[in-house]
């Protein structure tokens, strides 16, 4: 299973404004503005794992000199990242490398659905940013109770040229 109506993890959807402060949409809008104002060589996109990278010295030492942009939003699922990428976060930029790290928050999806959601993200990036090398980082999966093992581990088809 990869995309389409049969896979809920591969259907783009904006995050719900649970806190009522429009935080998620504000972050997305800031990322879209960054695409107009900056010329990144490297783009990181994903959930809190990506977002938190900026808090460490290694980001300033290794990634800032590469003109990297960090488009991570805590709590995002594959659906949210797909929506963001389809709604401006890949516009006006031509990064050489795009790093994708998402899926740990897809608690309601099976491993196969999450893999399909990630595949949909990679296919979208390939279509809109064909010059970019895409790196997909492994997911540190945990369920809502904090368990770190999953009945089915996520497997990507590395034989697929889109991955």
Task: Explain this structure.
The chain has 163 residues and is of the alpha/beta class. It has a single domain (8-136), classed as SGNH hydrolase (Rossmann fold), CATH 3.40.50. The chain is built from 5 helices and 4 strands; from the N terminus they run H-E-H-H-E-H-E-H-E. It has helices at 23-37, 48-51, 57-63, 78-89, 111-128, and strands at residues 42-46, 68-72, 97-101, 133-136. Strands 2-1-3-4 form a 4-stranded parallel sheet. Helix 4 packs parallel to helix 5 (111-128). The longest helix has 18 residues, at 111-128. The protein starts with 22 loop residues before the first helix and ends in a 27-residue tail after the last strand.
Average per-residue pLDDT, rounded, comes to: 87
CATH-assigned homologous superfamily:
SGNH hydrolase
CATH architecture: 3-Layer(aba) Sandwich
Please report the first level of CATH classification, the CATH class: Alpha Beta
Total number of distinct structural domains: 1
What overall geometry do the principal axes of the alpha carbons give?
Answer: globular
> Uncertain regions: pLDDT < 50 for 5+ in a row?
149-153, 157-161
Which sheet architecture does the biggest sheet show? 4 strands, parallel
Contiguous helical run count: 5
- State the share of residues found in helices, binned by percent: 25-40%
Residue fraction in strands: 5-15%
Distance between the termini: 14 Å
Which structural category do the helix and sheet elements fall into?
alpha/beta
Strand arrangement across the biggest beta sheet: 2-1-3-4
Gist of the model:
With 163 residues, this protein is an alpha/beta fold. Helices cover 34% and strands 12% of the residues.
């Amino acid at each position: 299973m990869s995309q389409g109506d049969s896979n809920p993890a591969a259907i783009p959807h904006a995050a719900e404004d649970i806190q009522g402060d429009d935080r998620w949409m504000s972050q997305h809008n800031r990322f879209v503005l960054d695409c107009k104002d900056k010329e990144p060589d490297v783009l990181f996109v994903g959930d809190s794992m990506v977002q938190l990278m900026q808090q460490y010295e290694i980001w300033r030492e290794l990634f800032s000199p590469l003109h990297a942009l960090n488009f991570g939003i805590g709590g995002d699922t594959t659906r949210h990242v797909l929506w963001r990428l389809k709604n401006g976060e890949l516009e006006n930029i031509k990064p050489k490398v795009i790093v994708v790290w998402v899926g740990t928050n897809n608690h309601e999806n099976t491993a196969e659905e999450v893999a399909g959601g990630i595949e949909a993200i990679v296919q979208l990036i390939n279509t809109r940013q064909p010059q970019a090398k895409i790196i997909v980082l492994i997911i540190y999966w945990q369920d809502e109770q904090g368990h770190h093992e999953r009945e089915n581990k996520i497997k990507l088809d590395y034989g697929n040229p889109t991955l």
